[in-house]
Write a structure and sequence with these properties.
The structure holds 2 protein chains of 2 kinds.
Chain A: E1 2-6, H1 15-28, E2 33-37, H2 43-47, H3 66-71, E3 74-75, E4 81-84, H4 93-100, H5 106-112, E5 120-124, H6 131-139, E6 142-147, H7 151-166, E7 174-178, H8 186-198, H9 211-219, H10 223-226, H11 231-249
Parallel strand pairs in A: 1-5, 1-6, 2-4, 2-5, 6-7
Antiparallel strand pairs in A: 3-4
Chain B: E1 8-12, H1 18-24, E2 30-34, E3 38-45, H2 50-53, E4 56-61, E5 65-70, E6 75-80, H3 95-103, E7 110-125, E8 131-142, E9 147-155, H4 160-170, E10 175-178, H5 183-189, H6 211-228, H7 230-234, H8 240-258, H9 265-280, H10 283-293, H11 295-301, H12 307-333, H13 335-349, H14 363-383, H15 391-410, H16 417-451, H17 458-489, H18 492-502
Antiparallel strand pairs in B: 1-9, 1-10, 2-7, 3-4, 3-7, 4-5, 5-6, 7-8, 8-9
The chains are: A alpha/beta, B alpha+beta.
Chain lengths: 250, 512
């Protein structure tokens, strides 16, 4: 079982859209896949039309036992793809992790229990650099980082790599890729070129800026369901195939 | 562990339309159905239902699509067929043909059941338009136009509460729960009837049953089993019908002959005579069948330049086989045979006379004794055979081994099954060797005899001579193995096993 995290310190960079479409293509290619929506906003669950648990504080039991997680798994409308929907109580994960005391590997331990059930777990992460984020960095085999080729995104990605260096995380886990790329904009083109020069691990495939990605919120499905032939859909498929190869190589 | 998603299967006792299903649902749910295509399905299997008995289904969809499926309906192999395909070797080379070869190497597959199947797929969506339950509604129209309806509901993981709510409403439908809705189960529920023919008869012998009564009863059953093959021989479905017919008649002859002292001399002579006539009428047909079945084998034995002659020979044999089959068919449908076999059965079904020496001996003890005597016969004959003994002695030993095999198999139910099975296995090693030795000899003689016929071309002569030479070499090779295999079978440990298993109860001895 492999664990992929879709993570960025910055919000609005296409984390959730990427997590949803990558999970969809992974499942479609035959991997038993679980998408774990760690974001209290529950946006990726929304895209799959899956509601979060009505129990107010289920997040409080998240790190306690693997059985608690099993109860929350929901089958999506697509073969091989299950989802654990996000929950408002997930906002308290940092406090919980503090209380448990095992600072960095608690998430990995909990997810290890699912290795017989799934080939791949995809974590849709909230945008913060917190205790939960450190658990994510420990648990994940690869940390996919969507980057919009703008100055601000470049800066936050640099912050992340510095954090990895200082905290002694394996920097090879960090796999950035460009999202919301508008090739008509000179800034996008220049930033992309300069960042690729600087960070060699950038994925070759990038996700273009597309209204189809935005329309996911209207259709509440992965792009392939409503815009099969469109550029953004093709880009996500290509991105998944590249990630799949990276996982095999890693 | 994550629980496997449950499935709930029902046979609906009355027809229900999609509209009605929709109306039954609670208001917060919506049913989406996709109407399936109606398929015409024919279930195929051989006389013994070997494919079905392996847990599989061979289905012809429409006219040309042949599919091998598992019991659940999962496709294992498929191919397109053109024209009549009744044997694996008539299918296009590939996965399907390979799989059928293993399941039915000799027997033809024939239509067993016909139906029309339509499966509509559906989903039940909640207020968020999220699928919470998947559905399958199948309609089967059997050969008798009888309609059967099946419903499968599969709640998605995490949506059991929704399913509970939906299933409460569905409880109003008149239905019976099924363990599964695999294709095999659906067909069985829709009128498919399986009648396995009895391959190895069970006689329900009592240990102390008087021999004459027991042997007569056994013989009746075996003659009836032989008769079950007659329609297949007449329809010329496959070569196994003649083979099984002959095996059953041969076993009956062997049984009557081994227990001749249980019958009055007149009754024994009558049975012996009639069985001999009945058995011999299929001799030629079987010989030709065996030769034709091994066409590819013979071809591989010869260099390619001799194949044209061989092909001509096979064509001639095929013509002869057609004549032989016609002769057998005429005989089986003729009044003389009907009277003869009717008379045979009548004789066997008469009250036992109990006038012969062993008429009222207990069958278990007598059978055990016969087996031991037969083993002793093989021991004595076998001891006398070495690499220089004339071939006739080896042929005779083969016959004796066959008699022992029949006795072991026919009376297996009176003795510990696993031990008898083990002895049969040991005997089979020797029998296989002797069988091959005999086959090569018979085939060679057949060819030599064939070569003496008229109008043979030079090509045919060359093939016959070439094949005869190869078969002779193979026969010599098998002959070298005979002494060694005999030694293994008459080894002290096996002798002890026979004595231990079939020893006579000293309290009630009987004269053999």
């Amino acid at each position: 079982m492999k664990i992929l995290a879709c993570y960025s310190i910055k919000g609005g960079v296409g984390k959730t859209a990427s997590a949803v479409n990558i999970a969809y293509w992974a499942a479609k290619s035959g991997r038993k896949t679980l998408l774990l929506d760690l974001d209290p906003q529950g946006a990726s669950s929304f895209y799959f039309r899956i509601k979060s648990s009505p129990k107010k504080d289920w997040g409080g039991r998240f790190f306690k036992a693997y059985g608690q997680i099993l109860k929350q798994i929901k089958e999506s409308d697509y073969d091989n793809l299950d989802v654990i929907p996000g929950h408002l109580s997930f906002r308290n994960f940092d406090i919980l992790l503090q209380q448990i005391g095992q600072r960095k590997n608690r998430l990995r331990q909990v997810l290890k229990g699912l290795k017989k059930e799934y080939d791949l777990i995809i974590l849709d992460c909230p945008p913060s650099i917190s205790q939960l984020a450190e658990n994510i960095f420990t648990a994940a085999d690869l940390v996919l980082v969507p980057v919009v080729p703008t100055t601000l995104s470049e800066r936050t990605f640099a912050q992340l790599t510095t954090f990895f260096k200082h905290e002694d995380y394996n920097r090879k886990k960090l796999i950035p890729f460009f999202t919301m790329v508008d090739r008509r904009k000179q800034l996008h083109r220049q930033t992309a070129i300069s960042m690729r020069k600087h960070y060699k691990r950038f994925l070759r495939n990038a996700i273009p800026y597309s209204t189809d990605v935005e329309k996911m919120g209207i259709h509440r499905t992965p792009i392939d369901i409503f815009a099969r032939g469109k550029q953004a859909n093709k880009a996500y498929l290509a991105l998944w195939m590249e990630i799949d190869q990276k996982m095999k190589d890693s | 562990m994550l629980e496997t998603a449950p499935q709930f299967c029902y046979r609906l006792l009355t027809e229900i339309t999609l509209q009605e299903l929709s109306e039954i649902l609670p208001k917060s749910y919506v049913l989406h159905m996709v109407t399936g295509i109606q398929k015409n399905l024919t279930l195929l299997d051989n006389f013994d239902w070997d494919i079905y008995q392996s847990g599989l289904l061979l289905l012809r969809e429409g006219k040309n699509k042949l599919q091998l499926l598992d019991a659940s309906g999962r496709l294992l192999a498929s191919d397109c067929i053109h024209g009549e395909s009744r044997f694996w070797w008539q299918l296009p080379a590939g996965d399907l043909a390979d799989k059928i070869e293993k399941l039915s190497p000799l027997r033809a597959f024939m239509p067993k059941y016909f139906c029309q199947l339509k499966t509509d797929h559906g989903t039940i969506l909640n207020g968020d338009e999220k699928i919470v339950v998947r559905m399958e509604l199948s309609t089967v129209i059997g050969s008798d136009d009888q309609k059967s309806y099946f419903l499968k509901m599969s709640p998605l993981r995490g949506y059991q509460k929704d399913y509970a709510q939906i299933s409460k409403c569905f409880a109003a439908i008149h239905s019976a729960e099924l363990p599964d809705m695999g294709l095999r189960n659906v067909l069985l529920q829709s009128g498919l009837e399986i009648n396995f023919p009895e391959k190895k008869p069970i006689f329900n012998l009592a240990a102390t049953e008087p021999a004459e009564a027991a042997i007569s009863r056994m013989a009746v059953k075996m003659v009836q089993l032989a008769r079950d093959q007659e329609p297949g021989i007449i329809a010329d479905i496959d070569t196994e019908f003649v083979h099984q017919y002959r095996v059953n008649i041969r076993k009956t002859r062997s049984l009557i002959s081994s227990f001749k002292k249980s019958f009055s001399s007149e009754r024994y002579q009558l049975l012996k005579r009639e069985l001999k006539i009945i058995g011999s009428q299929t001799n030629e047909l079987r010989d030709l069948d065996v030769f034709l079945m091994d066409q590819d084998y013979y071809r591989r034995l010869l260099p390619e330049n001799l194949w044209p002659g061989l092909n001509q020979i096979f064509r001639r044999i095929k013509r002869r086989r057609a004549i032989a089959w016609k002769k057998v068919t005429n005989s089986l449908t003729g009044t003389a045979y009907q009277e003869q076999i009717g008379h045979l059965l009548l004789t066997l079904q008469q009250q036992p006379e109990f006038v012969a020496k062993q008429s009222d001996s207990g069958i278990r003890q007598l059978a055990g004794r016969k087996i031991l005597v037969q083993y002793q016969q093989i021991y004595t004959d076998g001891m006398a055979i070495d690499n220089t003994t004339p071939d006739q002695a080896v042929h005779d030993l083969r016959i004796e081994c066959k008699k022992l095999r029949y006795l072991l198999e026919l009376f297996a139910e009176l003795f510990p099954a696993d031990k008898v099975k083990q002895l049969v296995k040991l005997l089979k090693v020797l029998q296989d060797n002797l069988g091959r030795f005999n086959d090569f000899s018979v085939q060679r003689e057949f060819l030599v005899h064939f070569g003496q016929g008229k109008n043979l071309s030079a090509d045919q002569f060359a093939s016959i001579n070439g094949l005869a030479a190869v078969l002779y070499n193979k026969q010599v090779y098998e002959r070298h193995l005979v002494a060694e295999n005999i030694a293994l079978f008459i080894d002290k440990s096996i002798r002890n096993q026979f004595n231990h298993l079939f020893k006579i109860n000293p309290k009630k001895d009987c004269d053999v």
